Amino acid sequence: MKIESLVIHGGIDGDDKTGAVNVPVYQTSTYKQPSFGENKGYEYSRTGNPTREALEKLIADLEHGYAGFAFASGMAAITAVLSLFKAGNKIIISNNVYGGTFRVLDKIFNNFDIGYKIVDTTNLEDIKNNIDEDVKAIYIETPTNPLMDITDIEAVSKIAKEKGIFTIVDNTFMTPYLQKPITLGTDIVIHSATKYLGGHSDVVSGLVVVNNEELATKLHFIQNSTGGVLAPFDSFLLIRGIKTLAVRMDRHNENSKVISEYLKNRDEIDKVYYPGFEDHPGHEIQVKQAKGYGGVISFVLNDKVDYKKFLSSLKLITFGESLGGVESLICHPASMTHAAIPYEIRQKVGIVDNLIRLSVGIENASDLLEDLTQALKESI
Ligand SMILES: *Cc1c(COP(=O)(O)O)cnc(C)c1O
Questions:
Q1: What pLDDT, in 10s, does the model give residues 347-358?
Q2: Whether residue 46 lies in the annotated active site
Q3: How many angstroms does the Cα of residue 121 sit away from the middle of ligand 1?
Q4: Of 120, 157, 189, 215, which has the maximum CB count within 10 A?
């Protein structure tokens, strides 16, 4: 089945018992056991819940993985994956991974002696040079947030396989509609499903997909032991959101193409980060490994523009955290998503104060252009 159909019919399609076309919300914590030592496949909803299971099967199908797991947030999903490692282990991470991922490694897992090495994962030699006997995984995001660096998933997975270590990809920005890391050799895929998979800015959730039975057994043990599971109603919302993933991503792709061209041609803007541009250093890899460029664009306003005024002048585009919703969302990385990174490091990596991140929604592109134009005029 093609992915446009799979988003609607993958996983568990409807309800056999009643014919309902949607999986019911099994709002229950426990299950009646018909007789001693017997159950109908469920005992307690932390361990397993039919609505959550439908979602878990769906994401496993979409990512071409062995099994899926649903968590109460992207960070709970990432925490569960990092719990696979032991004291003394180290993980290579991309040099601009999601701030929360860096924070949980630096402030929590570090306490348990699980370390990290920050590497420019766009540079394969750098990765190879940093793999020593303590390194057990390479953790990448591609494109990165907010600077849209592209890492070659297939090449990294190959290096990892040769060394007998895991590749983990946070696929939040692309979704399986645009990019399927497991088909490129990755072992574990993570999502903040809060973003494009949910797609409506109404549910916080995380998903993990693994590529084999051994990892599935370990991940289920961690999920059940640590307990950060997604609630039945939120699982239902996510299944509902995923049904329109293909049409939404097509529109995100189309709109961001139009808007990136517009931004590139404006005098008020110095630089636009968008992997769809042919002169983007990762463009060819992006074309090879993904079906589109996604909906996130970052850009640097020039010195004549008051960025605070620009953000406050927007009328249609929502100024706020998060991304991947049907509505366009805009944020200021230096003071919001990346505020925890020290000023000097931010300057060095390019997260300057004039940098803006735009998550292009699925509105009519001309309305978005009109809003950007009036806000730029207001803020000179
Ligand atoms: C938002 C995000 C996360 C964290 O997910 P939550 O659902 O907010 O916990 C992780 N990775 C990426 C790339 C994100 O954008």
A1: 888 999 999 999
A2: yes
A3: 19
A4: 189
Give the residue extent of every domain in the chain.
Answer: 35-243, 246-378
Ligand 1 atom closest to the CA of 78, numbered from 1: 10
**Mean pLDDT, residues 155-183 taken together:** 98
Give 53 Cα–ligand 1 centroid separation in angstroms: 22
Known catalytic residue at 357: no
Does the bond joining 50 to the residue before it have cis omega, within 30 degrees of 0? no
From 15, 46, 66, 117, active-site residue: 46
Query: Which CATH superfamily, name and number, covers 246-378?
Result: Aspartate Aminotransferase, domain 1 (3.90.1150.10)
With a CB cutoff of 8 Å and minimum separation 6, the contacts of 257 are: 276, 293
| Overall fold of domain 35-243 | Aspartate Aminotransferase; domain 2 (3.40.640)
Of 75, 169, 190, the one to substitute when testing ligand 1's pocket (max ligand atoms within 8 A of C-beta) is 75
What's the CA-to-centroid distance between 275 and ligand 1, angstroms? Answer: 20
Convert the pLDDT of each residue in 214-273 to its tens digit. Answer: 999 999 999 999 999 999 999 999 999 999 999 999 999 999 999 999 999 999 999 999
List Cβ<8 Å contacts ≥24 apart for 19-26.
22/236, 22/239, 22/240, 23/50, 23/51, 23/54, 23/236, 23/239, 24/50, 24/51, 25/51, 25/232, 25/233, 25/235, 25/236, 26/50, 26/51, 26/232
pTM > 0.90: yes or no: yes
pLDDT band at 135 (very low <50, low <70, confident <90, very high): very high
Q: Is 195 a catalytic residue?
A: yes
Active-site position among 170, 187, 234, 371:
170
Ligand 1, residues at Cβ distance < 6 Å: 73-75, 98, 100, 141, 145, 170, 172, 192, 194-195, 204, 206
